[in-house]
Amino acid sequence: MIENKQQKVVTRFAPSPTGFLHIGGIRTALYAWAYAKKNNGTFILRIEDTDKAREVGGSIDHIIESLKWIGIDWSEGPDISGPNAPYKQSERLASYQKYAKILVEKGLAYADPYTEEEVESFRKKAEEEKRPFLYRDHRPENPPVWDGTKPLRFKITDVKSYEWVDEVRGKLKAGPEALDDFILIKSDGYPTYNFAHIIDDLEMGVTHIMRADEFISSTPKFLALYEALELERPSFVTLPPIMGADGKKKLGKRDGAKDFLEYRNEGYLPDAMINFLAFIGWNPGGEKEILTKEEFINLFDIKQIHISGGGFNEEKLDWINKEHIKRLPEEELEKNIFAWLPQELHIKKLIPLIVERISKFSDIKTMVDSGELDFFYKEPAYEASKLIYKDVSSQKIKSNLEEALDSLQMTEEEDFTFEKIKALLMDIANHMDSRGEVLHPIRFALSGLDKSPDPFILADILGKKETITRINKAISILSL
Ligand code: GLU
């Protein structure tokens, strides 16, 4: 028995470099990483690049960049090496050869002598006869010596039912239908996923395999291999699929399965992404919905991973992101917001107003582009009629503005704060038939916008001098 000597938790994320990572892949990495962290274990990044036809250039860098952005780190991986290097399957062919030879020697693997056309004709015949195609029905009596130019197949000696325990789904059972003489090493010399991951997990001491549910149906094959090589089974942890917003079908490209780095480009916070992804498929119970990265790691437990798929809800993501934005330390918040603002709007006082109105940082660009923030550095231009509130006369609006102006003018520069402005203006507004009679024209005079923040924030941001200038201008427009 070759045993896993390590007792400590070892998990891995094993993406294939076939394109960008989407949230499904990141969520798998996140859970595997969190579980290792929580248990002071090891988290490994392994690249499964044995399907050269499907490989997409640049994917490995892209995967690494995505993981780094969200804050997932690994202690062994292709970029940093480690005690079990190399971490790309294409560089581990010697290991697969070693275990393939063990299987050949045991009489449990053999060279596949057929051409592709021959295998295809067996398949066709089975189809015509309406029976499932099984390679093992055609197993050659005297296979040629395996010289690496032919596929190497695993010989299923016992077509039986397998039982195993999935840490999430409990007892599972599958068998004969999944068991055929599958390929271990292809004619191009590269191993199949079925074989390679088992050897890698063994050599890297992986204790918990966290992966998507599409691998359940192949598990009897894996179990047959563990048996043949006399290996201890690792723990299987099947993660629930991520469903689209309707909760019915798996998330597809159209409803959100985009390149994960797009979330960075749209100005989501990495910790908010962790928080959001954590809850798609897991819940620690309780009411708390906003978690820091550390809180998530501390709470994370396989026992609370769900069996059925969790829905991907972009509104929820926006809400979580907003909550994380609000909780950012002042300096970081400022840095993030200023990164999206033109230089002339790098004004600290704008920050609360912006935070109030965004759920992700790219919303700032929308605000800027729509002219919502122009009021700050451009004196508004508008028609007198815009200052009028409902059917209040222009005379009355003018005198209201004059009253507000007097009161604001008497305030010392250093007292010109949000609270003070609000107290003064509300005092006047409360004596009117309707508060809008004074608050609307002031708001408009200061912003020139049909929709804008309240006049107190505007006046506070603009400062005493500019506020007075703009109210004076409104009065003069009304006097024309
Ligand atoms: N290389 C596999 C994939 O990208 C990973 C499966 C696993 O984690 O074992 O789907």
At a glance:
By secondary structure, the chain is mainly alpha-helical. The chain is 42% helix and 9% strand.
Give the secondary structure arrangement, pairings included.
Elements lengths: L9 E4 L9 H16 L3 E4 L13 H12 L22 H13 L3 E3 L4 H13 L23 E3 L7 E5 L3 E5 L8 E3 L7 H11 L4 E5 L6 H10 L6 E5 L2 E2 L17 H5 L4 H9 L14 H7 L10 E2 L2 H13 L3 H11 L9 H8 L4 H8 L24 H16 L8 H12 L6 H12 L7 H25 L1
Parallel strand pairs: 1-2, 8-9, 10-11
Antiparallel strand pairs: 3-4, 4-7, 5-6
Helix pairs in contact: 1-9, 8-10, 14-15, 14-16, 14-17, 15-16, 15-17, 16-17
Explain what you see.
- The chain has 480 residues and is mainly alpha-helical.
- Helix content is 42%, strand content 9%.
- The chain is elongated, with a radius of gyration of 32 Å.
- The protein starts with 9 loop residues before the first strand and ends with a helix.
- The model has no long low-confidence stretch (mean pLDDT 95).
